[in-house]
Amino acid sequence: MSEFHLKVGEPAPDFELTSDSGAKVKLSALRGQRVVVYFYPKDDTPGCTTQACGFRDNYVNIQEKNAVVLGISPDSEKSHVKFKTKFNLPFTLLADEDHAVCELYGVWGEKSMMGKKYMGVHRSHFVVDEHGTLIDVRYKIKPEDSVNGALKMIGL
């Protein structure tokens, strides 16, 4: 599948990943709630911390809107635990070490830093409604814009 292929109105691709607590989390098991699924490149880096803390700072309001947040990166469960503890993140982080879910959502692709090309995660978010349908699809989004856009889609 090509990058950036998902569209609003389509069913959100289902997945199951291991969380920071070691539990398996399956997207389809969260039906009945809105779910913000956000993909980020790496734990404890400036942009990823800004994005995570933005969701953290609004999490009580997110929960009041019958919504949950899932953060996904290729980092390990152990890395997620450190990141979550350091910044007191109240939501679930999922380990996608083989980047299969990143690829499923079209967020894994070529990136470039200081002239070097490499494969990695394009910061993106998806908002899934109570029925499992995508109601917001944002590829290559800035950390602050991701938080504000996702909050708007769940009614905040």
What is the gist of this entry?
This protein is α+β, with helices and mostly antiparallel strands and 156 residues long. Helix content is 28%, strand content 29%.
The average pLDDT is 94
How large is the count of helical segments? 5
- Helical fraction equals 25-40%
Derived structural class: alpha+beta
The strands making up the biggest β-sheet line up spatially as 2-1-5-4-3-8-9
Structural Rg: 14 Å
Describe the protein.
This protein is an alpha+beta fold and 156 residues long. It has one domain: Glutaredoxin (3-Layer(aba) Sandwich), CATH 3.40.30.10. Helices cover 28% and strands 29% of the residues. It has helices at 46-57, 59-64, 77-86, 100-104, 143-153; strands spanning 16-19, 24-26, 34-39, 67-73, 92-95, 108-113, 116-121, 124-128, 134-138. The strands form 2 sheets. Strands 2-1-5-4-3-8-9 form a 7-stranded mixed sheet. Strands 6-7 form a two-stranded antiparallel sheet. Strand 1 and strand 2 form a beta hairpin. Helix 1 (46-57) packs parallel to helix 5. It is globular, with a radius of gyration of 14 Å. It starts with 15 loop residues before the first strand and ends with a helix. The model has no long low-confidence stretch (mean pLDDT 94).
